[in-house]
Amino acid sequence: MFNFQIRSRNRTRAGVATVAAPETATDPRIHVDLAHLQALEGPAHTLNLLPRQPARSVLAGRHASRLRGRGLNFEELREYWPSDDVRAIDWKVTARTGEPHVRVYTEERDRPALIVVDQRMSMFFGTRHAMKSTTAAEAAALAAFAVLDQDDRVGGIVVRDDGLYTQRPKRNRRALTRFLSELALANQQLHADAPPADPTSLDTVLQAVANIARRDHLVLLISDFDVVGPATERLLSGIARHNDVILVPVVDPTGESVPESLVSAISDGDLQATLDTRSGDTVEAMDQFNRQRRQVINDWRLRYGLPVAQLSTGEDTLPQLQRLLGLVPQSAKLPPEQAGEE
Questions:
Q1: Superfamily of domain 34-65+111-339
Q2: Closest C-alpha among 248, 261, 14, 264 to residue 137
Q3: Strands 72-79 and 311-312, how do they pair?
Q4: In this predicted model, what pLDDT tens digit does every residue of 32-86 receive, in sequence order?
Q5: Which CA distances in Å does 311 have to 252, 293, 320?
Q6: Tell me: the pLDDT tens digits for 315-327?
C-alpha cells in the first residue's frame, strides 16, 4: 500500500510547516508517460469493442444498451426492382410519382469512438496499486488501440481542471499519438503541489461530447464522476439517445470499503488535513459519500440503460477490462482457492 503522507512545499493555511513531496514520476503506478501508453498497443489486441459481444460482457448484459452496428449512409433513390426488399420502398415518393421507388443505403465503413478520460486532481488518489488517474489513462489507451485495430475512427477528450483537450475521431496513428501525448502530459501534471483550482464540471465535459458525438458514436466516459452539474442529466440523456454510452467509473478500494484504523495526511497542495478512520463519524461520512456517488451512477444506468464497467485502482487495468468484456471468466480475478468454490 502506498504511504500517502502528501505534503505541500509551502506553509499550509493552518500554519503547519511542510516538506517537499518525494519524487514519484518514475513510478508508472503514479504517473504514466507516452512510451508507457504506447506499449499497451499489443495487449489491446485482446480486447473487443465491436457491437457483437460475448455473453459474459457487461456490454451484453440485461441493463446494457445494444451496441449499434455500423451506420448506414443514404446513397440514392431509384425505381423498385423485383429483387428489392419491400421494406425499402419510399411510400411518399411512390405516391407522388405513381411508380414504386426505394431508398438505397450503403453501410458506413466504421463506427467512430470518442474516449473521454478524466485527469482532474480528484483522480490523483490511490491507496493500493495505482492512482485513479493512472488506471483511467491506461484504460483510455487500451480502448483507443482496440478501436483503431478494428478499423474504426477514434478520438478523445482529456479532462483537466483547467480545461479540455478535444480531438475528433480519426482513423490514423498520428492523431492517436497526439491524443495519447496530451493524456500523458495531463497525467504527469498531477501532483500534490499543484495549485488549487476549481474542477471542471461534468456539464462542460458532456457539452463537449455532445458537440462531437452527434449520433452513432461509441462514447466511453472514464471518470470518477465528480462535480455533477445542473445540466448533467439532460446532457447525458441527450447523448445516450443517439449514441452508445458506456460509463467507466474508476474507484479506489476505499470507495468500496473504508479501511479500519487508517491514519493519513492528505492535501490539495494548499490545505492539509488528517484522515483518521478510527473515528466512527469519519467512517460514516466517507461511507455516505461513496454510497451517494454509486447511487448517482446506478440511477443513470437504470434510467438510460447505460452499461457500467467499473475499474478499480487495486489491480492492473488490462485483466479488469478483459473480464468486463467477457473475454475471461469472472472467477479469474479470484485467488485459486476461492475460484474453485464458485
A1: von Willebrand factor, type A domain (3.40.50.410)
A2: 248
A3: unpaired
A4: 999 999 999 999 999 988 877 887 888 875 444 556 766 666 778 889 988 788 8
A5: 9, 15, 7
A6: 999 999 999 998 8
